[in-house]
């Protein structure tokens, strides 16, 4: 996700042993006996929107509704030229401390939202050095609670933020290490790159095929191939027979249009999916959650309410999984959770209950919006 000039314009301004891990998660969950505190994006560029005709690409399942999740992000939007530091965590803490904190936050995602999936960023700085020993604790804490974990490569910032792999000399060793660690963990899913918009559709499909060829030991139904561009259409990767059997990841945001009706948002989303809903997970989508919008009430003159109602209705209709952006990101007005309580014993509060209701609706739960 990227939030740049366009966002400002819209706003009018600004693994130790399994036994030890099991013990740690038990302690962490036990420590979360307190109740949650209730509380009532991406780039300045408009993503390309010229999807090609969809062809059958092979499906790992009949639908993707098993993925009900949120993104957990670095306050910097995951674009970093150094260690990733997820909101609520510290890069100075060891495995055990990171595991304890991460376990509480994962527990809060489940308790507050009913989530069962979390998407996490990786980069070479985080994986290829000594911090990987601690960062692994986040993946382990989620996996040990039965969460599905999507790990995705984010590029750097500044001149590196161009939609290309920053450095293949560090990119492949990063994935070598991640795959070696988690290829046997059925809870972990691998997304080779987030928003590969520097590449043409064909170039990106070639890179994804190269990733699959390099890691043949990874079952294809544990791989998420990003849609081309800003993950903004999956039709081209779906049509490529080399990528058969993988999941496809789609991103979709309300700020891509200054205004659209509910029906226009439904149509926009469906053309980006084509005939590939059975393989597709929307692993980023989001809207304002801290500004008081009521997503449970039809409000035709509000672009973001139209957007959230349209996409969650469509996910439900097409039996698509979805992973909200962001579940937790400090100081992000899209964040549907916020940190509360003692920073050493973090818990989360919901920033917009109507937004949480829409997530639940998209996941096949709850009730439709009121007229």
Q: Would you give an account of this structure?
A:
The structure is a single chain. The protein has 371 residues and is an alpha/beta fold. It has a single domain, classed as Alpha-Beta Barrel (TIM Barrel), CATH 3.20.20. The protein contains twelve helices and ten strands. It has helices spanning 5-11, 18-30, 95-113, 124-127, 132-144, 168-182, 201-214, 228-231, 235-239, 262-273, 303-318, 353-362, and strands at residues 68-72, 117-122, 148-153, 188-191, 224-226, 247-253, 280-286, 321-328, 337-340, 347-350. Strands 4-3-2-1-8-7-6-5 form an eight-stranded parallel β-sheet. It has a two-stranded antiparallel sheet with strand order 9-10. Helix 11 links the parallel strand 7 (280-286) and strand 8 (321-328). Helix 2 (18-30) packs across helix 3 (95-113), helix 10 crosses helix 11 (303-318) and helix 11 (303-318) runs parallel beside helix 12 (353-362). The longest helix is centred in the N-terminal third of the chain and has 19 residues, at 95-113.
